[in-house]
Amino acid sequence: MLAAIIRRLRPDMFVLALAGTVAIAALLPCQGTSARAFHVLGLIAIASMFFLQGARLSRDAVLAGMTNWKLHAAIAGTTFALFPVLGTALIALMPHALDRTLVLGVLFLCALPSTVQSSIALTSIAQGNVAGAVCAATGSSLIGLVLTPLLFGFMSHLRGGGIDVSGMWQVLVELLLPFTAGHLLRPWIGAWAARNRRLLAITDRGSILLVVYTAFSAAVVHGIWHQVPPMMLGALAAIVAALLAIGLLITRSGSRACGFAHADEAALVFCGSQKSLVAGIPIASVLFAGPTLGVVVLPIMIYHPLQLVVCAWLARRYASRSVAAVIGEGAPLLPVAATAR
Question: Among candidates 224, 252, 253, 254, which has minimal Cα distance to 236?
């Protein structure tokens, strides 16, 4: 019992690594020649990450869940429509809480696609539609490479800002092109990528940490803690928490109003509410440069650990509800309990 409680309380190692990276950047930021070297290494690492993600993408897994169009439409609508509307509304309700760069960061967070790994893992824990989650999360990640910059550009334009359109082409060249190349080479390197999935997961996260270190180093050198005082940081955390809470509430209520079964409801709640740090950091690094990048990614840096903690708790609640439903129908408990583990 004690071991189970400790496992539940143990924080996600990637979240700890992110916090450690920010701390190192605050104490020992890279500058000058070293900053340029880290920037180039970051570009290479991110391109490699997307290349290997393309190599690992299974077409069979995607095709397995494509028939449930109602579920996929709901997830896509939540990711690319509901969250942008919620983010814009929350900023309008607190117009003076954040400065312009943090406002862009919140809008950028809202435009991001869903995660792949955590969406699928949470749906599985919740006894949800895993095949549908695989298809929806993968499709969201791919569509987001194109749609996220366009959607963010539109929202920032409405707020009186805007981004350089050439940055959107850079996303296609620096991220989508390596991804496509990796997927085309899948017949030759796909088996190797599948065998080394754990090693490649470490390199994926290492790429993100490298970009985060470079971004926050530039932000620290240019005085990020003067740009984002404690009161503003607290307001940002409140907006991000409200965004997640309202998003979860609407997706859960909406799925039940639409008559979704438990499995599809779980897939919608967990795929729709997740925002991808893995996609967000690379896209932001293309669209923004210098110290601005470190400030813009602050909202997703706060949202990422929050979504993991809250949704992991909620997924266990869904699993308990699924088990209770099976018991109520008189089915044997053992197979379900084993699956829930």
Answer: 224
Please name the residue ranges forming H helices in the chain.
2-9, 13-27, 32-56, 59-64, 69-77, 83-93, 100-111, 117-125, 130-158, 165-171, 177-184, 186-195, 197-221, 224-227, 230-257, 262-273, 277-287, 291-296, 298-328, 334-340
Q: Using 50, 70 and 90 to split pLDDT, how confident is the model at 171?
A: low
- Of 288, 109, 164, the residue nearest 215 (C-alpha): 288
Q: Where are the alpha helices (DSSP H) in 69-164?
A: 69-77, 83-93, 100-111, 117-125, 130-158
Nearest to 149 by CA among 131, 163, 128: 163
12-340 CATH fold: Na+/H+ antiporter like fold (1.20.1530)
How many whole angstroms separate alpha carbon 329 and alpha carbon 341?
21
| pLDDT band per the 50, 70, 90 thresholds, residue 336 | very low
Q: Which two tokens stand for residue 34?
A: 């070293």
212 closest CA partner among 296, 287, 111 = 296
Nearest to 59 by CA among 160, 186, 152, 219: 186
Q: What is the pLDDT of residues 187-244, one digit of tens each?
A: 888 888 878 877 777 777 788 788 888 888 887 887 777 778 889 999 999 999 999 9
For residue range 100-112, list pLDDT tens digits in order: 889 999 999 999 9
Each domain of the chain, given as residue ranges in start order, spans 12-340
Q: How far apart are CA 94 and CA 109, in angstroms?
A: 17
